[in-house]
Amino acid sequence: MTKAPLIDEWEQRREEIRFKTPPQNHHRLFHLLHPKQFDRTFLDQMCELTTDIRTLAKTPEGQSHLQKLLAHKRAMLYFTQPSTRTFLSFNNACHILGIRTSEIRDSSTSSEVKGESLEDSIRTFSSYVDVIIMRNLEKGLAERAATLMEAIPRPIPIINAGSGKDQHPTQALLDIYTLERSLSHRGGIDGKVIGMMGDLSRGRTARSLAYLMKNYRNVRIVFIAPMAFTMGRDILDHLEEHGIPYTATTDLTEVIADLDAIYVTRIQAEHDIAGESQKIDLSRFTISSKELGALKEDAVIMHPLPRGPELHPEVDIDPRAKYWRQERNGMWMRAALLTRIFNAEAELYALAR
Ligand code: CP
Question: Which of 67, 127, 246, 300 is the most buried (most CB within 10 A)?
Fold first, then answer.
């Protein structure tokens, strides 16, 4: 009997997953703290695993397989800095994989108010769960938690879900995935001009994404920011060290036509000391229907969200706007990350058969 032709990309992909050889030689990932842990091989592997999990989740049968994958694991979501999508995407990534979750979202509801140290709090979480996913205003707290884990009898992985103004490594992973997918018909990120606009000095998402550009060939970065909020010297030094060309401007109109992707970010007014954000003419760092005409027809518009006035809702219907997809990709990428951290890839592909 002749087999019916595969009718869409997802069916084809599902067939490929069924016959895939489980990866043998992936290096083990335990803590996830900083984008410096990611090389090109890791990024490519994570993008592939993310797509495979997304594909499996498209059918009820695949969803029930995924639910069994890590049903024996528990996760702590310790988010004492505000979050909507990182929290919800990690929470739902856990649920997709069957992981049960506990959460603290406000330190006033924990024994921190009685004076318990952060170290003791984190050690306490580790008594009950198998992974701690944490967001905190304090730079370096995730690293401190990881160091603490190395010194106790039952160490568990620590995932940095955003550390102050410094880094947001899991956001960088989902941003890479979204860029690679959105540019896949043009060879992916390699060879592209990537614009990053907004508050680049205090926006950890742009900092982490810029950091990862060293993994891609022939990329060029264009930073577009008010003089008060230009990209930090540490990231520029890193790009120079790795030979990644970049330019910086305060005028979007000068560069917009060159961009293959623009990563728009909001002004992080919550970090103001003396109302610095109020002095900025935001209209010069904004994407609205006016700017769309100057962008390449196949350019990609991204934003880590939440947005402010720098990204007008009228852009949402433009086919180049990828930020809602980017947000959803966060859930799939974080499910892939947990699968990798718990070394469950072979099991994933075995369940798919
Ligand atoms: N992109 C991002 O980190 O969003 P949240 O602050 O809502 O988690």
Answer: 300
95 is catalytic: no
Q: Which one of the listed residues 28, 114, 185, 353 is annotated catalytic?
A: 114
88 CA: nearest ligand 1 atom: 8
Q: Can 114 be counted among the known catalytic residues?
A: yes
What is the reported pTM?
Answer: 0.94
224: nearest Cα among 245, 251, 242, 204: 251
Does ligand 1 lie within 6 Å of residue 305's CB atom?
Answer: yes
Percent of the chain with pLDDT over 90: 83
Active site residue 325: no
Helix axes 169-182, 204-212, angle to 10 degrees: 60
Q: Catalytic one among 20, 85, 95, 144? A: 85
- CA-closest candidate to residue 159, choices 194, 184, 180, 134: 134
Distances (CA, A) of 269 to 229, 276, 341, 350: 11, 8, 34, 48
Q: Which pair of tokens denotes residue 273?
A: 């000391």
Domains and CATH numbers, the chain: 26-167+328-351 (3.40.50.1370), 169-268+277-326 (3.40.50.1370)
Amino acid 153: pLDDT: 95
Q: Is 312 a catalytic residue?
A: no
